[in-house]
Fold each of these.
Amino acid sequence: MLYSSELIKGTLRTIILKLLCDQQRMYGYEITQKVKELTNNRIQLTEGALYPSLHAMESEGLLVTETEYIGKRVRKYYSISKTGKAKATEKVNELAEFMETMRVLLNIDLRTLTVQ
Amino acid sequence: MYVISEDQIDYILADIAAQGVTDEHLQNNILDHVCCLLENSAEPILDFEASYRKHIESFYKNNLKEIEVEANLLINFKHYYLMKKFMLLSGMIGAGILLLGNLFKFMHWPGAAILLLTGITLLALIFIPIMFYLKIKENQSVAEKIFLSVGLILASAFCLSVLFKLLHWPGANLLGNISLFGAILVFSPLYLVYGFKSKDNRTNVLITTILIISAAGMLYSLIAIRISRTVQESSWMVVENNHKSNENFRSLCLNTLSKDSTQDGKEKYQNCLSFLQKSDSLKWHVIYTATGISGNTNYNSLMDVNPNDLIIGKLLPTDNSQVRELIQFEAGLNQIYGSSNQAFDIEWAKQNIFGLRISEIFIRINDIERDALLYALK
């Protein structure tokens, strides 16, 4: 099952920041593949959402980049900055709290994943 | 693994640029991404171009450019939503205060001016500029930006013209004329041309254009209201009635004086005649300086002139000749009263003539005339 883009939209930055916290450096395609792999194809980041976020976070100083030439084309690697790390922790905690709140609000039993 | 040739890379890069992506970093990111997809494609690639199209089309909803637009929006518009909130807030508060100001003005309560000033300033200088700023940022084409900028300037100018009018500041009508004529002659054609580019909403564009033109037309007719003809005529009626009764009085006095056959009486009669001629020419000179109308002998020709415009020296530059005329007028009086007579002080005329209303000065001159004729009759 694929999750709707509406659900992913609000958590995209959290996903990217957390991934880059755990990995050394990644490029765009690699990020989409990693997310796919970790979620069993359930979350597929779209290019239209991924790159605007990467560019914005770079300009905000959350990410730093380095470029490498792969033959004729340029590959841009993203890694997390110091402020980005702090932001990642903040975002993950916020999401965890939000999930907990939603669990209570919607009365979801996490063990069976059914609405009671 | 499929190997992408350098020519194919050039082809992809050129295509990405042709689709409107201008940022070099984004171009490279997209290029690398699509190359990775092609290289790692599960199916064998027989037709490079078709495979490339299939992959690149999965990047967007309408066009590739939207990725750059979205990126710019996120980068430049960290405060986009904050600005939007601020815009709505300033608009609501502005409109509310404006309405309150109108109520205060209507009820003659104190504080109306400051409320109107605040309300209109909020709308004209904060709400409208932010609204257009956000709109301009959202839209990319130059034509659209020009069209929105024209709208911004005209809307702000109109708000300010209303403010100027309410506060009796100079330039209100000029601003109003510019903004309304601009809306009719510049904004609506631009809107029409721009709107007709897309086939979907031509009817709406046409309706909106009609609304803009008719609203601007109606507002213009409000601004263009001048003093009503009845008021204009009644104002002149006062002058004319004064003039008529003066004429009657003149002929009565001259008739009496002409019956005096003594040398002294004949001299008095001649003096009075020349004095009245001077008085008349002075009145018409005064009219001439205010209206540019010369050499007439009836007041009907002045009916079309707005009494508010009839201010001494308004039209023609004031010079000493008016003062000289008045001195001659005084000389005429002295011929009747004798050179040393101080009974009639016409200093007021020398001091106050500039800027006086014509009707006012006519009535004063006529008063002097009557006093002079009465004195001559004694």
Amino acid sequence: MAKTVTVVIDRSDAGAQRRFEVPVGRRETVLDALFYIQNDLDPTLSFRCACRVGMCGSCGILVNGGERLACRTALEPLGPVVELAPLRYFPRVKDLVVDFSAFYSRYRAVAPYLKPRPAVVDPVVAPPGSGLREEIDLGLECISCGLCLSACDVVGQVPEFLGPAALNRAYNLVADVRDAADAERLEVVGDRRRGVWQCHSHMSCVEVCPKGLAPTRAIAHLRRKLVAQAFFGRRPRPVPSQQRFAEGAR
Amino acid sequence: MQIEQVDLLILGSGGAGLFAALHAYDTNPRLAILVATKGLLGKSGCTRMVQGGFNVVLDPRDSLELHFTDTLKGGRYLNDQELAWVLVHDAPATIHELETRVGCFFDRREDGTIHQKPFAGQSFDRTVHRGDLTGIEIMERLRDQVLARGIPVWEEHRAVELMVAEGRCVGALLLDIRQGRFVGVEARATLLATGGGPTMYKISAPSLEKSEDGLALAYRAGAVMRDMEMVQFHPTGLLAGAGRVTGSVLEEGLRGAGGRLYNALGERYMARYDPERMERATRDVVSRAGYLEIMAGRGGPQGGVFIDVSHLGADFVRKTFPGMVQRVRDVGFDLATGPVEVSPTAHFHMGGVAIDPDGHSSLPGLYVAGEDAGGVHGANRLGGNGVAESTVFGRRVGDALGQEAAALPRGHLPPQAWEARARHHRRFWERKGGENPAHLLQELRQLMWEKCGLVRNQADLQACLVGLARLRDRLEAVSVAGSPSYNLRWSDALNLESLITVSELIAAAALLREESRGSHFRADFPQENDGEWLKNIFMALSGDATRVWTEPVRFTRQRPPGWEAGKEDEAQHGTRVAPGTV
């Protein structure tokens, strides 16, 4: 008899089946269990995934109460009973599927896109160790999975709080020598109600980030910048040296 | 049924779709653009999954001509040379734009300029990357710029039909997955950028929602398709038992950096297949070698071969390939210190819709960019040329759409025509207790792997076509029940229909090509036959029948080595294969 685990799923239809016995192999994940249930036990179960290797951030759910990517969570070590539920603070579409508008409304508020400085026309020359990218590198590779937002203690209390992922992105841009919009972005993240001052540094975001990022650190950097700006005003940033590209390639 | 009107409908939100949206918008901000995507914005599809990187000529010691020749050699001279030239020529400007306008930042060399790493089949190290998970940086930043422009996006709206009126594509029928209802979108121009994704093979790499929808839609709408027999298998797909991580790619940079491949006997078997290039031979060669080793009984416990990078030093491996190390660790192995079992995995479809360099298909109003298009890569794609294709062509076709779309006529179809197609895709709901599409999909994946995979022959391909016809019959016995909202079994049925349609074209073209070239290998015709087969196979649905024909490759920029001018004339005016029926 193959080993099985009991998977209990928080369904949106109160009458739908919630408990499933799922055989478990050594290398299988929570996502594999969801596929097994949907394919063979209850075709009406809804869940979301795409890449299945932790690159797209589509399959975030609560696993035994904690935020996880279903595709990167091994099933066997979770014990005999595994409880699955949709992410917190996201409107539910159906079963484990949530609407990402909760994530994007916050993300969009920080103007999460590069606004290029006119003086930077070619790729920036940034030798390792130059200080231009080291801090940003630590915060890159965010996959917008929303786990940090669901795990954030503050979002539950202060729904307007911009949340960890948006502030992490804001810091990456504020620290980017290519960007022209640091002043307006600092104003948004410095807002008393929505901004960085709301963070209690519980570091729940750091704990759940599947990419090992530390939004709390980005938030601390933003606070420091806001304080420095309050005392010393804005400092003009020098134009970085740039890698010449052929005229035709510009 | 709700029917919306836009100027430009973009299907897909990967590198091609989003870059096209940005360029169409920037070229003509008054254009009414709608992006519809099967998954979440920028999260579904395969640009997101790009690991190794992006081939581009940046170094003065490299040249466009070298990149071009590498691309043609890799493609065994079956490429559309004008498309391949666009790829090579526009790649530097694309990287420049990604770095200076879009907001990407790629890894740097010691001197601070953009780093380029070694990949297979290249005469110069020209692959730009961000670590070993490059697609995340590209897609996150393209998505940011789409948000910046406020371009409307419909998430989880999959296209199920391109609508055609009087010989023009006039939009698409979409299924709103969340609501489980159909929406029609009339558009002056429709861009197909859903990405191919050959997931009809037992072991395959693309993201799980992919099912060659774009190719199936274009074919059903009557667009001319080309090179459908050319499916790329990546040599190093991770094996993780029955888990769905199986088939995901361990990136080519591992081989580029000096990774070695061994069989279960500990032999470095590439010495028998390509003693000169060894593991840095092109993907077609390395994949086939691995497959033949496995078939000869020299595979490991999971039926694979082994990639080993431990001799490069554990610290180097952990620092250079952190994403790969983590993924392998997830399934219980250590890439930094020992061999990892891998198998060839279906990865990319070189075949697709025939286009011109600005993305026009043969069907007026239908534009195509990215993996849905065919011709750029010929018979085999070089690693690093995939994300280059989706972004280069997305960008370029976006420019063309920005200039052309507003002036294109708006075709109309009566509401009944939309309803009729919607009814067709709802037919699974009229049955009860029928076949399970998830199980049929498993059968399809087994069939294609065994009969139409890395090593093909006439009898197997004929059996494959018979098997596909049976699966098509059984698709018509599939039943779907429950709420239409986010109904995954319905999605499975629609995916299966696309995959069967495209599988039929792959098998039919593979049967016709009686030679071996690039990723297409025929055990009964194991040689490359330049005299007969420097030709492309084209297919188009015409009424109820499929027209199939061949055309000699036009060597508009470069002839294959050893190609004689006399032969070329003969081939150009030579006999054409009579139109047949699939």
